Amino acid sequence: MLNPKTALGIDISEHRISAALVKQTKNGLKLLKAGDAPIPKGAVTDGNITNPTLLATAVRRLLKKKKIGLRQAAVSLVARPILMQIVSLPEEMPGNMNQFIRSEIRHSPVLAGKEPQQDYCRLKRASRDGMERILVGATDREKIGDLLKTLSLAGVEPTSVELPVMSAMRAIYANKITNRFDTNVLVALLHGSEITLCVYRKDELDFVRYVNLADEINDNDRYMRRCEQEINAVIQYYDIEVAAAGDKWEILAVVESPVLAAGDVEFVLQKSFGRDAGVCSPQDIYTCTRIAKNEKIDACAMTAAGLAMRGLKAGPTNFAINLIPQEAEEARAAKKFMLMTANLAAVVMLFIFLIAGFVRIHLGRTQEIMERRKQDSPKDSIEQLLSHQRRVNNQIAYLSDKKARMAKIFKDNQTFDWPEILDDIRKNIPTTLYITSLSTMDTGNLVIEGNALSFKSIHVFAEMLERSGYFESAIVAQTQKNPQVNGLVAYSIACMLSPNQKM
């Protein structure tokens, strides 16, 4: 598949929604559109989505306000708890990497008692004992489902769900991290009430730590003191534990929180760590990244820009994690295939109608020519003309019969406005649910069958159908665990079509 020329990134924290539309041109990256909006009260609580409908409305409103028509987007993870961990691989590579990762993180208190959703990427630099390393990101699978439901309600198709720190690092990598071989670069992402600390040694990620500062977020002084403490702890660790780390450090804070002033953060860091401490804020988008300046746009969130760069495959291509479950990816691919099939069928039908029209016009012209010949050439053989006329009449009768039968088929099958009904069903399908069968009854009922990741998504689907103007009712007739695929729930929904929707 060819790389896209334009990509959208959407970053969501507990305080703000940010969007960035970036285009790949022959002269480099260009920021086409950017904007942000506050999170509605009650939509996100303690870092988790608590009202998907309210949050989806805010996302949709922001995209409409900024006139962003592209709805495929790379999206940042909105969930707590988050696990980020660098894992050293054994000398004998495990056959099933996901199973190996699960065994490594199952003892973590962060995800105790939860069904984890995880992904990983390989790091170029080996550990100090020579072992290959990977960066693992994980969270509660149920929280991923809430995010996918929100995006579905917002009309956004997620191409990836990524940890915010990875997007921020991708955005500033070329200008602020690479080619500093004699310096340890410590980057602190201040993303809402979360701080993620990354240490880069010789262009490669060497250390990562995620800290939740929710208790300090309402007091800027306490928040900044805690940031200083966490940064100092990392530097002291390297001074004691890593003999070859070197003494030179460069501190960089990426400020993605509307409650913190970038100037205040820079002042505190320089006071504590000297002139080698700096800040990257949305107003520094053109100096901290390699995106070309757009005079019409003054600011853009680093994380949103980094997400868009992922869609364009710009930046470190190996530094990428996608937390979308495989089932959701398969459902998205199935929906895409069904849409392509429907489009192809429409093209074939149009082609048939065009050919039928062309043949009819050609036959009409043939009859006109024959009539002129009969008048202009009385010596022509009458038998020959009659024989030709009979062949033409047979062809006309054949095509007329075919047209009548086709019209009857369409008439018999258009009691209801099926294209509109099916399109309405498609719009209401949650991302964590897919359909395997649609069937109708003589009574005007429609039965929908399929599989879902949870019972909750089935009932949500039924409620959304019932709110539609095309159905009088939508009842979950049957739910049971899929005996063939572990983790899926088979369902059946009985829908009564509204008689007001008849054509």
Task: Quickly describe the structure.
The protein is α/β, with parallel strands linked by helices. The protein contains 12 helices and 20 strands. Strand 4 and strand 5 form a beta hairpin.
Task: Describe the protein in words.
The protein is α/β, with parallel strands linked by helices and 503 residues long. It has twelve helices and 20 strands. It has helices spanning 52-65, 97-105, 141-153, 164-177, 220-241, 262-273, 285-288, 302-311, 326-376, 382-412, 418-428, 455-467; strands at residues 6-12, 16-25, 28-38, 44-45, 48-49, 72-76, 82-88, 116-123, 133-140, 157-162, 184-191, 194-201, 204-212, 249-255, 277-280, 291-292, 433-440, 445-452, 471-481, 489-497. The protein has a six-stranded mixed beta sheet. The longest helix has 51 residues, at 326-376. The protein has three domains: 6-324, Nucleotidyltransferase, domain 5; 333-412; 418-501, Ribosomal protein S6/Translation elongation factor EF1B (Alpha-Beta Plaits, 2-Layer Sandwich). The radius of gyration is 31 Å and the shape is elongated.
